[in-house]
Amino acid sequence: MIPIQEIHKAGERISGYIRKTPVHRLTMKAEGSEQQLVLKLENLQYTGSFKIRGAANKMLNLNESARAAGVIAVSTGNHGRAVAAMASHLGIRAVICLSEGTAPNKVAAIESLGPEVRRVGQTYDEATVIAKQRGKIEGLTFIEPFDDPEIIAGQGTIGLELLDFDPSLDAILVPMSGGGLISGIGIAYKHYDPEVKLVGVSMGAGAVMGASLEKGHPVKLSEEATIADALVGGLGKDNQYTFSHCQELVDTVILLSEEEITGAIVYALQELHLLVEGGGVVGLAAVLFGKARDLGERLGIIISGGNIDLGLVASLIQANKL
Ligand SMILES: *Cc1c(COP(=O)(O)O)cnc(C)c1O
After folding, report:
1. Which protein residue has the closest C-alpha to ligand 1 atom 13?
2. Closest residue by CA, ligand 1 atom 14
3. pLDDT digits (tens, 9 = 90+) for 154-172
4. Ligand 1 pocket check for 278: Cβ under 6 Å
5. Handedness of CA 294, 224, 147, 45 (dihedral sign)
6. Nearest atom of ligand 1 to the alpha carbon of 42
7. Coil, strand, or helix at residue 225?
8. pLDDT digit string (tens) for 207-249?
9. DSSP at 296
10. Distances (CA, A) of 247 to 156, 182, 189, 210, 254
């Protein structure tokens, strides 16, 4: 396991490059019981998602020669945007590999930061293989999206900030894909409160980490279209860190339908006045749709990103779901 000190160090290292995002507190009443929610708003983070934390920690640690050569990354969008933003801050070359299925708003946001964007592969997993190969051939440092101690430590800084806001949570609900976010938060919060329940939340279709934890080893699933596009993708061919961290740290997994995720996007917009993307809203969706009732009275909810396509929001409104 990555030592807690690495997360404290990451917090210091990245402090000039990230926002200490605020929390919203709200009370949810259902069937005579009450839950206090603490929403950690990483949709308000620079670049629109928490991914800048890991990318900053990793890239600020690169040595001179690695910086001079440049970096390469693969992404469903948010990691690529974070790497491109950090590359632009540091004045280093970045190549961002995106599969054909990447959400158009995310492609546009990355392009506007000025990296070299390459459209490679039909799926995210195909794009990953190509990006790693190109990195080796072209001498570029591959910036892992999750399976790297420095990335995990960067994401873990959210756990430290959450402890400052509320050290007595019963459970924390974390959007889960490759598992870097939940691993980092789990290490940080559980270090100070080993009793807290760590809950991974994903879409029902193609949730690779959830299926892998159930089987006891990393599995492959075919990629399916989902409104939670940030949660798509496998664990990588030779997962070294996040699978074993999740085995150790994650207490429960909750899976959600597309309708539940969509319902939570609309709820966040209408009731909380928050613009949240599908992958970012799953923790809240779990609460709204009654899947978190037995997790205790005080719940931390990581709202992990807000980069939703406005065309998609418009279509939800037009479909009269707002
Ligand atoms: C990347 C991402 C996640 C999942 O993070 P992992 O470290 O891959 O588990 C969740 N939400 C959003 C918005 C993301 O961009």
Report:
1. 305
2. 230
3. 999 999 999 999 999 999 9
4. no
5. negative
6. 13
7. coil
8. 999 999 999 999 999 989 999 999 999 998 899 999 999 999 9
9. -
10. 17, 11, 16, 10, 15
